[in-house]
Amino acid sequence: MEKDDLLLPKDFPKLKNDAFLRACQGQETPHVPVWCMRQAGRYLPEFREFRAGKDFFETCRSPAACCELTLQPLRRFPFDAAIIFSDILVIPQAMGMDVQMVAGKGPTFPEPLKEPEDLLLLQPKVDVNKELGYVFKAITLTRHKLEGKVPLIGFTGAPWTLMAYMIEGGGSTTHSKAKRWLYRHPEASHKLLKMLTDVIVEYLLGQVAAGAQALQVFESHAGCLGPVEFQEFSLPYLRDIARKVKDQLKESGQNVPMIVFAKDGHYGLEDLSQSHYEVVGLDWTIDPCSARERTGGKVSLQGNMDPCALYAPKERISEIVKKMLEGFGTRGYIANLGHGLYPDMDPENVGAFVEAVHTHSRHLNHK
Ligand SMILES: Cc1c2[nH]c(c1CCC(=O)O)Cc1[nH]c(c(CCC(=O)O)c1C)Cc1[nH]c(c(CCC(=O)O)c1C)Cc1[nH]c(c(CCC(=O)O)c1C)C2
């Protein structure tokens, strides 16, 4: 057994940069903290080299590999948070579904759920320590190896987004198979969403016990729902997750900020700001000032530069960042992109984005 396998979720190094955690709680920070969704990813040559020839989910199951991939972007850029390398689809796997990463196609379920009877094929009670213990080990190891540089974010997919993958069998533009269930099998849909919620709550609590210092819930497919379906099939479960995780953590005197990111779900912004999350993540289709107005100062905000703005020259990136910071203000704000980095993005421009956030926000704070 390697020495690293024996590391326990205690005696973690002291946190040196708490700007991200302070911003989650709406407290003052010397600069606006920044990180990027998919900051560990194929835009980095060292990521491509490390992942070459290895199966994606095998990589996810290796704590040492996840730790290395999580740390890679932090060696290049002064990000204010790390996010554990993993994937949202480890939950359907833990529930008994086969998921493979097919090159050029993305995640694929050879046998997606087709009809409500298929729910019987899923594990009724998932032992998260047994099925997802490898993620917890990755978190513990990474938290030690981060040496307190920045906080470590854990994450999960939200119930509706995971349900969509489990029925579609992979990525989709219409999500019509999954939405068919909402209209044709609402009861079975709620049953599945409830099953997912139960696993997600245990999974997030396990991540915190392992050392995660913040949690992000990705509702990546909020945008294919309308406001009515969002109210019925997404929001109640997002709320349940935050409430249950927080209630449990409170019992042990812990307070871990939670972020909800419902991509393209701007119709739900007011509701999301009153759903027990400290932070609401935003995609780039919302204007910073109106997001602030609509959330009424109840939550911190995270986002939301169009990832494609990273294709612009550095000077333009700097101008765009400045405008974004002026719109959000520097308090209760975490800079990020409106969605993940793409593989063809230039790492240098990612560096320019991070630097622009730090420089302009320090300047705005001293005005
Ligand atoms: C780097 C990567 C990941 N997943 C996938 C890749 C690319 C494949 C590879 O490198 O081989 C496949 C991978 N995994 C998924 C997809 C999308 C498939 C599709 O819908 O078409 C792909 C290409 C599913 C997935 N996976 C994730 C989401 C939610 C965020 C989002 O909306 O993008 C989703 C939807 C979460 C995720 N996934 C990953 C992280 C790592 C941490 C970080 O951000 O640095 C995270 C947070 C890691």
UniProtKB/TrEMBL annotation:
Q: Which NCBIfam families match?
A: hemE
Query: What's the protein called, per UniProt?
Result: Uroporphyrinogen decarboxylase
Pathway(s) annotated for this protein in UniProt: Porphyrin-containing compound metabolism; protoporphyrin-IX biosynthesis; coproporphyrinogen-III from 5-aminolevulinate: step 4/4
Question: In which domain of life is the source organism classified?
Answer: Eukaryota
Q: What is the purpose of this protein?
A: Catalyzes the sequential decarboxylation of the four acetate side chains of uroporphyrinogen to form coproporphyrinogen and participates in the fifth step in the heme biosynthetic pathway. Isomer I or isomer III of uroporphyrinogen may serve as substrate, but only coproporphyrinogen III can ultimately be converted to heme. In vitro also decarboxylates pentacarboxylate porphyrinogen I.
Q: What is its EC number?
A: 4.1.1.37
Domain Uroporphyrinogen decarboxylase (URO-D) intervals: 33-42, 153-169
Q: Which family does it belong to?
A: Belongs to the uroporphyrinogen decarboxylase family.
Q: Name one GO molecular function term.
A: uroporphyrinogen decarboxylase activity
